[in-house]
Design brief:
Blueprint: H1 30-43, E1 48-55, E2 58-66, E3 82-83, H2 88-101, H3 111-114, H4 123-128, H5 131-135, H6 157-163, H7 181-195, H8 199-208, H9 220-224, E4 233-236, E5 239-242, H10 252-255, E6 258-259, H11 261-270, H12 281-287, E7 292-293, E8 307-312, E9 317-321, E10 324-333, E11 336-343, E12 348-354, H13 360-373, H14 380-391, E13 413-417, E14 421-427, E15 433-437, E16 445-449, E17 455-459, E18 468-476, E19 479-486, E20 499-501
Antiparallel strand pairs: 1-2, 1-12, 3-6, 4-5, 7-8, 8-9, 9-10, 10-11, 11-12, 13-14, 13-20, 14-15, 15-16, 16-17, 17-18, 18-19, 19-20
Length: 502
Amino acid sequence: MRRLILFVIVIISLGGCKDGSKNQNYTPDFKSIDRFLEQSILDWNVPGMAVGIIYDDSIVLSKGYGYMDLIEKDPVTDSTLFGIASLTKGFSALAIGMAQYQAYLDINKPIKFYLPQFKTQNDSLTNNINFVDILSHRTGYSTFSGDLSWYGNLKSKYQVLESIKSIPVSNDLRSVYGYSNVMYLTAGLALEAATGQNFESFVTDFILSPLKMYNTTFDYSKVIQSSNTATPHVVENNKPMPINYVNWSNMAPAGGLFSNVVDLLKWAQFQWNPNYSYIDSVYFNAQHEIITKQRFSWLDNLNGDEIKMKGYGLGWEIIEIGSYKTISHNGGLDGMISQIVVVPEMKCAIVVLANSGSALPIILGYELSHRLLIDSKNTYYNLSLRKIKENASIDRKTEFDQEQKRDLSYMVGEYYDSLMGGVSIVNSNAHHYELKFEQATLFDATIFVDNKGKIVLQWKNILSLPNGEIVEIDTINNILKSFTIRCPNPDFRFEEINFRRR
């Protein structure tokens, strides 16, 4: 899952031969690929990136490009740690399969059997949703619904679980695809309840340690103190700006892992060479099969009719392209994007980790797939670069009435929303107001009035979000009683928020 500004899971054409089959007379030019990767971070204004490539079951490239940050300018290497966010979901799904293999749980039993405190707005959903529903994103929730209950929030995992009963349910169970982080958290907590073991330690003991992925960890505090951890960046005024990591510890099963290229190449090889002594083959193979169908994105459609099918299995996205089946996932923190693409039948894989919010890792994953499997000629990279640059700019400029001609004193007070928690509107000085959150402090904002009379929110800590707007729901006797926030973006559903005066 990519947080903020861009969420795209993109697959490019592996075409070249009419039937999508491998060109047997073609050998990739890895020196040319290396030069291409060096140029790509310049094309996309990305500070640094690490890339790993496996071809015919051999590691042919494992390298860093650019810098971990633009201040110290320490170089990225293949051992540099990045937040891999939603790439974690594949590990979580495998862990649940392992727990079933060890007879701790049954993936077809309702979650509530293991987690009695689990509750949604819909009793039928509460009583029937199971692990398979969650891991394949067919829960009835819309994509990213409920993410404002945890992102940048001081809540614990179990406090986020308590918030789920307030998240709107948009669809019937098992009816449509809806990407849900909060449901992956729920599955992770159900695993804890079933096994009696902390989720993070279960993944470490049964996946990371056996695969010798010794640098992959959920330990946020340790990682951010490391001298070999990449710094996230977002683009502000066409210049990459370093930002702080957002702590995902309260959403660990959905996106809490940090890793590097060296370790993730081991993870990729496991996808075609699993150890069936601790995972059931039926479950493992089901991870790589489509359970919930997805619609094509506009970036998918750049490839014409090459993509035959797109959907989600258990912790992996599956795309049928010609005669190939690829499994993949992307992940995104604010200011950091990751991508893994695996072609099990060809024993090929690509891992791309970047310390920027750019879509480059996603584009590269599939550009490199073409160059590995088909030929060196492909128009996708340049076409994507042009299209995304045309659409990527966000207008954060707002003409403010700096003298605050509109009196906002009627808004001052304390409010509460069941997802984001408490918030206060305060008069910070004689002329300006602020929005201050009790738990979701990342969303603190300065309040202005623009020249059209709109009450505008300028986020203090999230450079990648466009300005928001306070929308009054109920005002009585010139006192604001409730409001929501309007902030069009692809990642957060502010329409789910309703702050009521305490």
